[in-house]
């Protein structure tokens, strides 16, 4: 049973079936340089400075380890890996009004597929807040005894 702060493990070599296609006007891709500040600002506004900090790490990786979902000029969501720590996937966040339409599944899928391609065998979801989502989309399983894990003693912004 996931308590809300455990880590989960994803077998990158044994992922569940891919989610159904997204609406044709939605694109999942990596951002290019001029978009990086916009992405981290958006994450701060919609989620938290801590998640924006993690996204900053992913955007600084080469190759970049962050995907965004867009519709026309609107940012709908993001997911990254190798941000919290090496081999970790997340954070992931989708615009509230867009949730439940498959965007999160495609963003997570893009990250775990990329991780597998670059040579990882497993991915770790840290401090899971939506366990059933990760279980369903990526077959994630709980890691016993993983709380607080790598987050133990972490510094936090006052109002997070
Ligand atoms: C979790 C989150 C990224 C999911 O994105 P989404 O675009 O709504 O997800 P999808 O529409 O692709 O859903 C894929 C499947 O997971 C399920 N699902 C989505 N969010 C879920 C949740 N929070 N708990 C359980 N199941 C969830 C959906 O019902 C769907 O299942 P279905 O195919 O049977 O309908 C989004 O709800 C979000 O941004 N939440 C706030 C941030 C957050 O909690 N991030 C995770 C921190 S560990």
Q: What's the layout of helices and strands?
A:
Blueprint: E1 8-11, E2 26-29, H1 36-46, H2 49-60, E3 66-71, E4 74-81, E5 88-94, H3 103-118, E6 122-125, H4 131-138, E7 141-142
Parallel strand pairs: 5-6
Antiparallel strand pairs: 1-6, 1-7, 2-3, 3-4, 4-5
Coenzyme A binds at residues 90-94, 99-105, 128-130, 132-133, 136-137.
Offer a concise description of the structure:
The chain is an alpha+beta fold and 160 residues long.
Note down, in words, how this protein is organized.
The protein is α+β, with helices and mostly antiparallel strands and 160 residues long. The chain has one domain: Gcn5-related N-acetyltransferase (GNAT) (Aminopeptidase). Strands 2-3-4-5-6-1-7 form a seven-stranded mixed β-sheet, with helices on both faces. α1 packs antiparallel against α2 and α3 crosses α4. The longest helix has 16 residues. The chain is globular. The relative contact order is 0.24. The mean pLDDT is 96. Coenzyme A binds next to β5, α3 and α4.
Which features does this protein show?
seven-stranded mixed beta sheet; binds coenzyme A; 22% strand; Aminopeptidase; 4 helices; globular; 160 residues; alpha+beta
Main sheet: which strands, in order across?
A: 2-3-4-5-6-1-7
- The total strand number stands at 7
Identify the CATH architecture.
3-Layer(aba) Sandwich
Runs in which pLDDT lies below 50 for 5 or more consecutive residues are none
Number of helices: 4
User: Would you identify the CATH H-level superfamily?
Assistant: Gcn5-related N-acetyltransferase (GNAT)
The amount of beta strand, in percent, is 15-25%
Mean pLDDT: 96
How many domains, as an integer? 1
- Kindly, what is the distance between the CA atoms of the first and last residues, rounded to a whole number of angstroms? 25 Å
CATH class: Alpha Beta
Order of helices and strands: EEHHEEEHEHE
Q: Could you please say which CATH topology applies here?
A: Aminopeptidase
User: What portion of residues is helical?
Assistant: 25-40%
The unique ligands bound to this protein are: coenzyme A
């Amino acid at each position: 049973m996931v308590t809300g702060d455990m880590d989960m493990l994803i077998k990158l070599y044994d992922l569940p079936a891919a989610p159904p296609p997204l609406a044709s006007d939605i694109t999942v891709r990596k951002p290019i340089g001029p978009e990086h500040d916009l992405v981290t600002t958006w994450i701060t506004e919609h989620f938290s400075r801590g998640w924006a900090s993690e996204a900053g790490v992913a955007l600084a990786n080469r190759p970049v380890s962050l995907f965004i979902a867009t519709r026309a000029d609107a940012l709908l969501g993001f997911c990254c890996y190798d941000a919290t720590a090496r081999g970790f996937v997340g954070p992931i966040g989708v615009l509230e009004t867009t949730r439940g339409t498959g965007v999160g599944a495609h963003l997570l899928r893009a990250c775990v597929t990329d991780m597998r391609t670059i040579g990882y065998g497993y991915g770790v979801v840290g401090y899971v807040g939506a366990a059933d989502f990760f279980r369903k989309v990526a077959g994630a399983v709980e890691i016993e005894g993983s709380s607080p894990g790598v987050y133990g003693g972490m510094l936090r912004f006052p109002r997070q």
